[in-house]
Design a protein that fits this description.
The complex is a heterodimer of chains A (about 290) and B (about 270).
Chain A lengths: L2 E2 L2 E2 L6 E3 L4 E2 H19 L3 E6 L9 E3 L11 E6 L6 E6 L3 H9 L2 E7 L11 E8 L5 H17 L5 E4 L5 E6 L6 H18 L3 E2 L11 E4 L8 E3 L57
Parallel strand pairs in A: 13-14
Antiparallel strand pairs in A: 1-2, 3-4, 5-6, 5-8, 5-9, 7-8, 9-15, 10-12, 10-14, 11-12
Helix pairs in contact in A: 1-2
Chain B lengths: L15 E7 L2 E9 L39 E6 L2 E5 L1 H7 L6 E9 L8 E9 L3 H14 L1 E9 L2 E10 L2 E7 L12 H4 L6 H13 L12 H14 L12 H18 L2
Parallel strand pairs in B: 1-5
Antiparallel strand pairs in B: 1-2, 2-6, 3-4, 5-7, 6-9, 7-8, 8-9
The chains are: A alpha+beta (about 290), B alpha+beta (about 270).
C-alpha cells in the first residue's frame, strides 16, 4: 500500500494505537471500509480533524484550517471568524479519496458541524450530548438517554442514539429547515431542565456539569462552527472505540460502548439509523 | 382509488394457448401474464377546463389531420427519402403463430445471462397435468431449461422455458444483435487491472456488505408518496404533518413552552 486512489500513503506501518498494535494502515483500511456509511455524514459539512501523528499515547491536536500541503482536489469551505477576523479553510470530506487523505494525516477522529457548509448558520441536526461525571457510569447515562428518548417521543419527535465513543451517548434529531442555532440550543436546554425535574441524576446547567455522580445533558454544542464526533468516527482512546449509531434494542443498562470499536463496527450489517436523512422533523420553539 | 395495489395475484385469462413441443411430444399449456407494472398512470388534461386532451396525426406539410385509412408506413432510406409500404404488404410478411413453443435444446438454466431476458409469462397446464409435471420434474432434476422459438402475437422471439417456484415459466429473450457488446466501448477495452493490495481491500469491502438477495427489501417510495398525495387530494386535504394529540403530550408541550419562555427572559 503505497498509493491508494489519489493518496500517497506515508509510514503505513506507523503504530497509532500501541495497546492493540493498530497501524496507520489499519486506520486507513477502517475508514475505506466504513466509507459507505460515513460519507453521507461528512459530505457537505466542514470537518474538524483530531490528529495524532505519533499515536494516541502522544498529544494530538485539533485542526480546523486545511494544512499547507493540502492537495488542490480537496474541497474547502472558507470561513472568516467573527472574533479575530481570521480566515479558516475547513476541509469538506465529500469523497473516499479525501477520507483516505485525512486518515493518512493520522486524523483518527473526525468531527462534523451540525449545519451544512453552504449554510453554516442553519442547523439541520439537533444534538443532545449526554455526558456522565464519575462515579456516574454508563448505566446512569443509559437511564437518562432512555428518559430523554421517551420525552421526545411524547412530543412526537424521533431521536437517534449513538455512542459518543468515550463515556457518553448522543441523541440527534434531523431537523426541517428554518431553525436558528439559538432556537435549537434553547429547545435542547429546556428539555434538559424538564428532565432534571424528574431525574435527580440529571443536571441541565454547565456550571454543575462537574458535580460528581451526575449526568449532564449538554446543549452547548448546538452552535455555528461547533462540532460533534461524526457517526462512525474512531475515538483516540485505547480500544479504538467508534461513535456508533445504535438501535433502540441496543440501548440497555448493560450497554458497553467499548464493544463498538474498529474491529466490530465493520461487520454490523444493519444500519440502525436507516432513513435518518429523510426523517427531518419539527421541534417546538418560541 | 381504482389503481390495483395488490401484488400480481391470479391473472384473469390466458393471453395465448398452445403447446410446448419437444420433437413429437406436445404439452398443451396456457400462457398467463406474470409481471405487472405498478406505476401510477396519469392522464393529460387541459388545465383551463380539466378535460382530457388527445393526440392527432397531423401532416407536417399542411397541418391537415390525417385519418388512419390514409396512413402508410415508410422506411427512411436517407434523409427525407422513403420507401413506402402498404399495411397489407407488412401484414403478409409477419410470422404466423403456430401456437407452439418449439424447444430445440436443453441448457443449464444459469448459463443464460439475464441481459437477454425480455419478459416472463407463467405457463399452466391445459388439461395436460401429467405431461406438465413430468417436464417440470425433469427440468428440476437436471437443472436444465429448454430453449427454442415462440411466436407471440406477430413477433418471433427466442425463448427459455424453465422451472420457477414449482411451475414452468416462459421467458422471451432478446436477439444477440439487440444487445450491446461492452467490448465495443473504448472505456471498457482500455481498462487495466488493479494491484493485489487494492483488490484485497476491495474484496473486504464487498464482504462487509455481503448479504442474501431479497427483492422485498426494495420499495418504490416515489409511488408510495404519490398514493398518499392522491388520497389527500381526493379527500380535499392539503398535506400537513400530524401531531400527537394526547392529553399527556399537550401537558409536556405546555411545560416545554413555559421553560422556553423562561429561558428567553433570562
Amino acid at each position: 500500500m503505497d498509493r491508494i486512489g489519489k493518496v500517497e500513503v506515508s509510514n503505513p506501518e506507523k503504530v497509532l494505537f500501541p495497546g492493540m498494535g493498530l497501524t496507520k494502515r489499519d486506520i486507513i483500511e477502517y475508514y475505506i471500509r466504513i466509507a459507505p456509511r460515513m460519507l453521507p455524514w461528512l459530505a457537505g459539512r466542514p470537518v474538524v480533524q483530531n490528529r495524532f501523528p505519533d499515536g494516541i499515547d502522544h498529544p494530538g491536536f485539533f485542526e480546523k484550517n486545511a494544512p499547507r500541503e493540502t492537495p488542490d482536489w480537496i474541497t474547502l469551505s472558507p470561513h472568516l471568524t467573527e472574533t479575530d477576523r481570521k480566515m479558516v479553510n475547513y476541509i469538506v470530506c465529500d469523497n473516499a479519496d479525501t477520507l483516505i487523505w485525512l486518515a493518512n494525516l493520522a486524523a483518527i477522529e473526525l468531527n462534523i458541524t451540525l449545519s451544512p457548509a453552504n449554510d453554516p448558520e442553519s442547523p439541520d441536526f439537533a444534538l443532545f450530548d449526554i455526558d456522565p461525571e464519575p462515579p456516574a457510569t454508563m448505566e446512569e447515562t443509559v437511564q437518562v438517554a432512555l428518559a430523554l428518548w421517551e420525552f421526545l417521543e411524547g412530543l412526537g419527535i424521533r431521536g437517534y442514539v449513538k455512542t459518543s465513543g468515550k463515556k457518553g451517548l448522543h441523541i440527534v434529531i434531523p431537523l426541517k429547515p428554518g431553525y436558528t442555532f439559538r432556537q435549537v440550543r434553547t429547545f435542547v436546554h429546556a428539555t434538559g431542565i424538564l428532565l432534571a425535574r424528574d431525574l435527580e441524576v440529571v443536571v441541565s446547567e454547565f456550571s454543575r456539569s462537574r458535580d460528581p455522580g451526575t449526568v449532564f445533558v449538554d446543549y452547548l454544542q448546538n452552535a455555528a462552527w461547533k462540532t460533534m464526533a461524526c457517526p462512525y468516527s474512531l475515538r483516540p482512546v485505547p480500544g479504538a472505540p467508534v461513535s456508533c449509531p445504535l438501535s433502540r434494542e441496543e440501548v440497555t443498562p448493560s450497554l458497553k460502548p467499548q464493544e463498538f470499536n474498529i474491529r466490530t463496527v465493520i461487520s454490523r450489517t444493519k444500519d440502525p439509523w436507516k432513513g435518518i436523512f429523510e426523517d427531518r422533523q419539527d421541534i417546538p420553539v418560541r | 382509488m381504482t389503481e390495483d395495489t395488490t401484488p400480481p395475484g391470479i391473472p384473469h385469462r390466458p393471453i395465448w394457448t398452445g403447446s410446448i413441443s419437444i420433437g413429437l411430444v406436445n404439452v398443451p399449456v396456457k400462457l398467463l401474464t406474470m409481471v405487472r407494472d405498478h406505476s401510477i398512470p396519469f392522464r393529460l388534461l387541459h388545465k383551463a377546463d380539466g378535460q382530457p386532451i388527445q393526440y392527432q396525426r397531423v401532416c407536417t406539410r399542411d397541418n391537415q389531420v390525417i385519418p388512419w385509412e390514409e396512413v402508410v408506413r415508410g422506411y427512411e432510406v436517407k434523409k427525407d427519402e422513403f420507401v413506402v409500404f402498404e399495411n397489407e404488404e407488412l401484414e403478409a410478411m409477419k410470422p404466423e403463430s403456430d401456437r407452439r413453443i418449439r424447444l430445440e435444446k436443453f441448457v443449464y438454466s444459469l448459463s443464460v445471462d439475464p441481459v437477454y431476458f425480455n419478459k416472463s409469462y407463467l405457463l399452466v397446464p391445459d388439461k395436460s397435468e401429467d405431461a406438465y409435471s413430468l417436464l417440470l420434474a425433469a427440468f428440476r432434476k437436471t437443472g436444465r431449461a429448454g430453449v427454442g422459438m415462440v411466436t407471440l402475437r406477430t413477433k418471433e422471439y427466442p425463448a427459455l422455458v424453465r422451472e420457477y417456484h414449482d411451475a414452468l415459466i416462459l421467458t422471451t429473450l432478446h436477439y444477440a444483435d439487440e444487445v450491446v457488446n461492452p467490448l465495443d466501448m473504448d472505456e471498457i477495452r482500455k481498462l487495466s487491472g488493479p494491484s493485489e493490495k487494492e483488490l484485497g481491500l476491495a474484496e473486504k469491502i464487498v464482504k462487509d456488505l455481503s448479504g442474501e438477495f431479497d427483492i422485498t427489501e426494495f420499495e418504490d417510495t416515489y409511488r408510495e408518496r404519490l398514493k398518499v398525495l392522491i388520497q389527500k387530494k381526493m379527500e380535499g386535504k392539503t398535506v400537513t404533518r400530524k401531531k400527537p394529540a394526547a392529553e399527556e403530550a399537550r401537558k409536556l408541550m405546555d411545560a416545554l413552552q413555559e421553560t422556553l419562555v423562561r429561558l428567553e427572559h433570562k
